[in-house]
């Protein structure tokens, strides 16, 4: 187990059998999330892109050969897409545009998938909005 995975695993005091269980156990709060700790470098990550607004890093449980998470550096109440307000338009657009830049950087010319999980039924387990960029393999439809 890599050092990064060990640190992240120890961060979670409860072990979930599935992402669905993790999503149903997660609750929105104003407390720092694991992503806040990645932004502040308290928890290491493999960063593939960073600017003043967005951080993109490799997912530790990839669902494809390439699986990158893109997060805003400031949460500003945007815990999930269903909580978006008009003031979030710029950062939402920035996340999607950055996903396009990272996809190109990662060589995903043949295509990729963007996923935003929202709420327990959407399998959201971290209440800090994030975009999954998944590629490097043929995707199927419906997604799940």
UniProtKB/TrEMBL annotation:
What is the recorded name of this protein?
14 kDa zinc-binding protein
Query: Which Pfam families would you find in this protein's record?
Result: HIT (PF01230)
Report the active site residues: 130 (tele-amp-histidine intermediate)
| Motif Histidine triad motif in this chain | 128-132
InterPro entries reported for this sequence:
Histidine_triad_CS, Histidine_triad_HIT, HIT-like, HIT-like_sf
**Which species expresses this protein natively?**
Noccaea caerulescens (Alpine penny-cress)
Locate the coiled-coil region(s) and give their ranges: none
HIT domain span: 34-144
Mention one GO molecular function: adenylylsulfatase activity
């Amino acid at each position: 187990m890599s050092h990064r995975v060990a640190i992240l695993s120890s961060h979670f005091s409860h072990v979930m059998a599935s992402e669905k269980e993790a999503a149903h156990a997660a609750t929105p709060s104003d407390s720092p999330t694991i992503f806040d700790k990645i932004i502040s470098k308290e928890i290491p990550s493999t960063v593939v892109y960073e600017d003043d607004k967005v951080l993109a890093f490799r997912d530790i449980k990839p669902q494809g050969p390439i699986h990158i998470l893109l997060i805003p550096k400031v949460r500003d109440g945007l815990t999930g897409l269903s909580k978006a307000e008009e003031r979030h338009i710029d950062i939402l657009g920035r996340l999607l545009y950055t996903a396009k830049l990272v996809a190109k950087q990662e060589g995903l010319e043949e295509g990729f998938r963007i996923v935003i999980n929202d709420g327990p039924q959407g399998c959201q387990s971290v209440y800090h909005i994030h975009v999954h960029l998944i590629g490097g393999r043929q995707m199927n439809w419906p997604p799940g």
